[in-house]
Structure formats: structure tokens, C-alpha cells
Amino acid sequence: MTLLGFVAAIVAALIILRLFLPSLDKTIDSAVREKDVGLIVAAIDKQRTAAHVNLFNQAIRRLWDAYERSMATLLVRELASRHRNENIAQYWLKQVATAEPVLLQEVLTKSFFDAHYLPEVAAQCGKVG
Mean pLDDT, to the nearest integer, of 4-17? Predict the structure, then answer.
């Protein structure tokens, strides 16, 4: 196989994968319809581990901006459980505490927040994490 043939095969495989694998956006849409953040978590878990933090952030941002705050907060809980020391996890914990104190109490719970929130890390975060 020539180099050109090899490159063409790789491109074709990537196109086929893109067509058949659901995008995160489609998964989020399904999760909102079904009110099931487990769909998002499962989709993230199928990706390479190095991408998980970024994918959680993308999903949380999309849900947050769409005012699906309860679902976003459930994902914040999952993100903080798995990646407590990441700046973006601390940003989202602080965001929930500041903007949605009722969800802090009802979804995160005070004991979870107290165990996972690191003010010194959160202080390093800017306006968008």
C-alpha cells in the first residue's frame, strides 16, 4: 500500500467513525430529553482518560448555559468526585455554590461540597475556569 493509500484509508476510517459514533452534543440532547446524566457519564467514560476533564467541562457548560442547572450540578458532582484537584472542578463547585445555592444543598450536599471544595485551587480560577 502506498503512503497515499494509507492516508486515504485512515481518513475514510475516521469519517466512518464520526458518522456512527454519537457526538457529545447528541448525547447531551438525549440526556436532557430523558433527564439522565448517566448517558453523558457513560459517553465520557468511553473516551480516552486524558479527555475526561475537558469533556465534563464541555457538557457542564452546555447544560449550565441551557439552564439545565440540576443536571449540570450532577455532572459537577461527578467531575469533582473523579478530578477534585483540577481547576475546572473547583471552578464549577464555586459556580454552583455562588449561583445556585439551593442546588448546592439539594444536589451536591454540604458534606460533599465541604469534602471536595478546595478554596486555594478555586482562587486560581478565572471567570471561565
Answer: 62
105-122 confidence digits (pLDDT tens): 999 999 999 999 998 888
**C-beta of residue 82 within 8 angstroms of C-beta of residue 66:** no
DSSP character for 67?
Answer: T
Cβ burial 53-91 (10 Å sphere, 16+ → b, else e) = bebbbbbbbbbbeeebbebbbbbbbbbbebbeebbbbbb
User: What Cα–Cα distance (Å) separates residue 54 from each residue in 2, 86, 101, 111, 115?
Assistant: 36, 10, 24, 26, 22
Tally of residues, the chain: 129
Label residue 2 left, alpha or beta by phi (over 0 means left) and psi (-120 to 50 means alpha): beta
